[in-house]
Amino acid sequence: MTHLLQPICCAVGTSSNRDSFLRSWSCLALTILSVLTIINLATAEWTSSPTQNLPLCTAQNEQHFPVLIADGDSGAIVAWSDARNANRDIFTQRVNAIGDMLWKPDGIPICDLPSSQSWPLIVNDMNGGAILVWGDTRHGNQDSYTQRIDADGNKLWDSEGVPVCTHPTLQDDVNAIADGKGGVIVVWEDWRNGNQDIYAQRIDATGKPLWEMNGVPVYNGDGDQYDPVLIADGEGGAIFAWWDISTPDWNIFAQRLSAEGVPMWHSNADAENSPIPLCTAVGNQGAPVAVSDEKGGVFFVWSDYRNDPQLYTRAQLYAQHITAQGEALWEKDGIPVCELQVNQQQPHCIPDGNGGFIVVWWDERNIFADIYAQRIDASGRPLWGSEDTDSRDGIPVCTEAGVQRLPQLVPTDDMGVIVYWLDYREDFADSTEDAIYAQRLDANGNPVWEIDGIPVCSAPKEQISPQAVSTGNNAAIVVWSDARGTDYDIYIQRVP
């Protein structure tokens, strides 16, 4: 500790024994404070080992389905489903920029009623806190509830949550976004009409439902509708899409609701307020994703079996650009993201910061699933690719041995992205050894980190359901459910 003592103690004077004594004690106090500060910072730092990572919650029983948002200060607020009380509850934790847990160890309860609460969602409340949405069985069937917390984890709405929908039928596949006004818009699949329809509700910043009790129909027509997605329209409303099986082929449709919950788009069909078709091509289309064009419109990307309408073993990704008025800007039924007729699945998209979007997916062109990406401008032109490859084929992000799945994106400061995914390159024999890997791409699609990515987590056993947010400085925070202990816990890591 001599190197710590010397810079501080060299200033001790010798004019009197008393002064010297007092200054020596001051020196010692400053030294102890300095050492404690250094120790505290050292223990708070993110680990550099992908086999260790930072435990966020290791309470007894299983913790699953973590979600997170950036806290506005280079940290994150995380929520998850927690079985420590022998049923499913919703817990949350805040971690700061250097890896300190700011709230109670293992998190604080958001809803811990005796019934089951699960599948949490989280959005930013635009004031340093968060709004959480979850599925809830307190009334016997699956309902949905929401709660808002501040930056210190204090509940701001009713202590047991605000009901989003408590209609005595099943609500499933809930999705949510911030409404851009401090509140939240929630969408779900709903069985109240005897078949599966799409309903939505908007809750304002005070916890007040703004639309009809138990939600308004986004679409409640014939047949079943699945997997609703949505983005905010910038005016307090939202744009929605889903896949529809009311006809022999599965198709993709879309609708926009105003800030008051009123349908704004209309197709040429006879039914009033009928949604607009995104794709009604031959074969099945499903699993749409939505990303803002940052001008009030939206890009949609989906899995499409038009080139394999009999076996449904080989999907391609197609995309469409829709204006705020519901007009399609690209050719009818969309354009291919990748023209190779090999299986492409699980697309994930973010805006590229210049009017277009970046999309990532897994791709079986080399037999086992690998990760590919593409950047597409507002006119539908692919921007990534070299002269010796077809730019419509995308660029490789990871072609390592084994299977790679569930790729997702977060933006970086230089208009590039960080891609992260589940990676099975070490999966051998009868054991399942998955891991989480990541790669950073610049605005031109060039890899910044080592080829095929860097490990975020390569600990033993299973890692599942990773989610991430950008923290600035071209970095991200990743959270996941991890089986390295006696059961599933929540771990977190900053990358790089």
How would the blueprint of this fold be written?
Elements: H1 2-9, H2 17-44, E1 54-57, E2 63-70, E3 76-82, E4 89-95, E5 108-111, E6 117-124, E7 130-136, E8 143-149, E9 162-165, E10 171-178, E11 184-190, E12 197-203, E13 216-219, E14 225-232, E15 238-244, E16 251-257, E17 276-279, E18 285-292, E19 298-304, E20 316-322, E21 335-336, E22 344-351, E23 357-363, E24 370-376, E25 395-398, E26 404-411, E27 417-423, E28 435-441, E29 454-457, E30 463-472, E31 475-482, E32 489-495
Antiparallel strand pairs: 1-32, 2-3, 3-4, 4-5, 6-7, 7-8, 8-9, 10-11, 11-12, 12-13, 14-15, 15-16, 16-17, 18-19, 19-20, 20-21, 22-23, 23-24, 24-25, 26-27, 27-28, 28-29, 30-31, 31-32
- Report the uncertain regions: 1-22, 24-43
Characterize the overall form.
Answer: globular
Overall SS class: mainly beta
N-end to C-end Cα span? 31 Å
Approximate helicity band: under 10%
Sketch the major β-sheet: 4 strands, antiparallel
Give, in spatial order, the strands making up the sheet with the most strands.
1-32-31-30
Number of helices: 2
CATH topology of the largest domain, by name, is Methylamine Dehydrogenase, Chain H
Q: Would you report the number of β strands?
A: 32
Report the mean per-residue pLDDT as an integer.
89
- Level-2 CATH architecture of the largest domain: 7 Propeller
Radius of gyration: 25 Å
Please state roughly what percent of the residues sit in beta strands, choosing from under 5%, 5-15%, 15-25%, 25-35%, 35-45% or over 45%: 35-45%
Q: Into how many domains do the coordinates divide?
A: 2
Q: Quick one: CATH superfamily of the largest domain?
A: Prolyl oligopeptidase, N-terminal domain
CATH class of the largest domain: Mainly Beta
